[in-house]
Design brief:
Elements (H helix, E strand, L loop, with lengths): L1 E2 L5 E2 L20 H16 L7 H9 L12 H19 L3 H9 L10 E2 L8 H9 L3 E4 L5 H5 L4 H17 L8 E5 L3 H5 L4 H15 L4 E4 L7 H17 L5 E4 L6 H9 L5 E4 L7 H13 L3 E4 L7 H14 L3 E3 L7 H17 L4
Parallel strand pairs: 3-10, 4-5, 5-6, 6-7, 7-8, 8-9, 9-10
Antiparallel strand pairs: 1-2
Helix pairs in contact: 2-3, 3-4, 4-13, 5-7, 9-10, 11-12, 12-13, 13-14
C-alpha cells in the first residue's frame, strides 16, 4: 500500500500462480517470508518519489535486483507492487487505471467488455451449467490434469466431456446467438496419452473439433516437452499439422511461456495460435501490458490470463489492463467457483465502461 500526499491510498496484491516452481516458474511465495524484504528493500525505492508515470514507477521494482542474490525480485513482489504503482498514478491524476495505461502505451480504452474465460476446476459439470446460464463467452477450462483419471488413456474421457458440454449448451442456452468458445486446459496430458506423437495428437484434436461442433475449440497445453526450446518446436509443429488438416482448433501456449521474452519467442515462432499471458508469472504488470500489445502486433491471439490463486484486487487491476489493451479474452479470477471470479471481472469492466468518458 502507498499513502499518497493527497491522503489517497493506492494498493495492489502480491500473488503467485497455483503451480509455483513448475514449468520454469519462481518458487513458492509465502507472504510472511517476503514482507520483511519488502519493508527493508522495496519500500525505500518509493518513499518520497514523485508520481509522474506508471512506467517509471513500475521499472523501479521490476528492473531492480535483489542485492543478496543478484537476481530480480520474486515475480509475486513485482506483480503486487506494480499494481499499487498503477493505482497511485491513477489516483494522483483522478483517472481510471485503464485510462493511465491507454495514455502511456498509446491505446484506447475499449468501448465494450472483453470476453471473459471462466474456469470450472474439477466440478466441471455443475460449473459448466453456471457458465451457460451466465452466457460466459469462453468456457470451461475444466482442469484435465491427469491422463488416466481425467483425459483417459486414449483420450476417451476428454472426448466424452466435450460431447456432453456441446449437448448441454445446445439444450440450455436461451438464445441461438449464444455461441461460446470451448477452451479446455489439458496440462500436457495429450502428450502423455499419445507419447508425444504430434501427428497422433493433431489427428485426435481434429476429431475432438468435430465433437465440439458447432462451437469453436481451443486446447491449452496439449503437450509439455520439459523445456522452452522443445515446447516451442512442438507447438509450432502441432499448429502446422492442424492447419494442414484444415482444422480450426486452436492451440493455447502456457507452460514454459512465463516471461515477456518467452512470450515474444513463442509468438515469433508461431508456437500455437494463442498465448496465455499468465500475469503473475510476468512479474510487473507493465510486462503483461507489453505482452498483450506484442502479441496483437505480431499476429498472435492474446489471452490475458492468470491463476485461480489470485485476489479480488489483482483481478480488478487485470480488468483495467484488459480494457486498455483489448486482448481476445481475459480470465475470471480468483477461484474456480465461476460466480465469484466472473462477477469481479464483469463488474469492474462495467464500471470502467460507465466512467471512462466522464473522467
Amino acid at each position: 500500500m502507498f499513502i499518497l500526499d493527497n491522503g489517497a491510498i493506492a494498493h495492489g496484491d502480491c500473488a503467485a500462480v497455483q503451480y509455483s516452481g513448475a514449468g520454469g516458474r519462481d518458487p513458492l511465495f509465502l507472504a510472511k517470508d517476503f514482507i520483511p524484504l519488502i519493508e527493508k528493500e522495496i519500500a525505500p525505492l518509493y518513499k518520497g518519489k514523485e508520481i509522474n508515470s506508471f512506467k517509471e514507477l513500475a521499472a523501479l521494482v521490476d528492473q531492480a535486483k535483489n542485492p543478496s542474490t543478484g537476481k530480480h525480485y520474486h515475480t509475486a513482489i513485482r506483480y503486487g507492487v506494480t499494481q499499487a504503482c498503477l493505482d497511485a498514478v491513477a489516483k494522483s491524476k483522478h483517472k481510471l487505471m485503464a485510462q493511465i495505461i491507454a495514455e502511456e502505451y498509446g491505446t484506447q480504452v475499449s468501448n465494450h467488455s472483453i470476453a471473459i474465460f471462466t474456469q470450472s476446476g474439477d466440478d466441471r459439470y455443475n460449473n459448466a451449467d453456471k457458465m451457460i446460464m451466465k452466457e460466459a463467452e469462453v468456457l470451461p477450462h475444466a482442469l484435465f490434469n491427469h491422463p488416466e483419471e481425467k483425459t483417459g488413456l486414449q483420450g476417451e474421457k476428454l472426448a466424452a466431456y466435450v460431447e456432453w458440454l456441446r449437448d448441454r449448451i445446445l439444450q440450455f442456452r436461451t438464445n441461438d446467438r449464444y455461441n461460446p468458445i470451448m477452451h479446455i486446459d489439458v496440462y500436457g496430458t495429450l502428450g502423455i496419452v499419445f507419447n508425444n506423437d504430434l501427428e497422433k495428437i493433431a489427428e485426435y484434436m481434429s476429431q475432438l473439433e468435430k465433437k465440439a461442433a458447432p462451437f469453436k475449440l481451443r486446447i491449452e497445453g496439449p503437450v509439455d516437452m520439459g523445456d522452452k526450446k522443445s515446447q516451442i518446436e512442438a507447438l509450432r509443429t502441432l499448429r502446422e499439422l492442424l492447419e494442414k488438416k484444415g482444422s480450426k482448433t486452436e492451440i493455447v501456449a502456457d507452460e514454459w511461456c512465463n516471461t515477456l521474452e518467452d512470450i515474444k519467442d513463442f509468438t515469433l515462432h508461431k508456437a500455437g495460435h494463442m498465448i496465455q499471458i499468465k500475469t503473475p508469472d510476468l512479474g510487473g504488470i507493465n510486462n503483461s501490458i507489453e505482452a498483450v500489445l506484442f502479441c496483437k502486433n505480431n499476429a498472435m491471439e492474446a489471452y490475458l490470463g492468470g491463476t485461480c490463486n489470485e485476489t479480488s484486487r489483482s483481478a480488478e487491476v487485470c480488468a483495467h489492463i484488459a480494457m486498455a489493451t483489448s486482448p481476445l479474452q481475459c480470465l475470471a479470477k480468483p477461484g474456480m467457483g465461476v460466480d465469484e471470479g466472473y462477477m469481479i471481472a464483469f463488474n469492474e469492466m462495467q464500471r470502467i465502461l460507465a466512467l471512462k468518458d466522464k473522467l
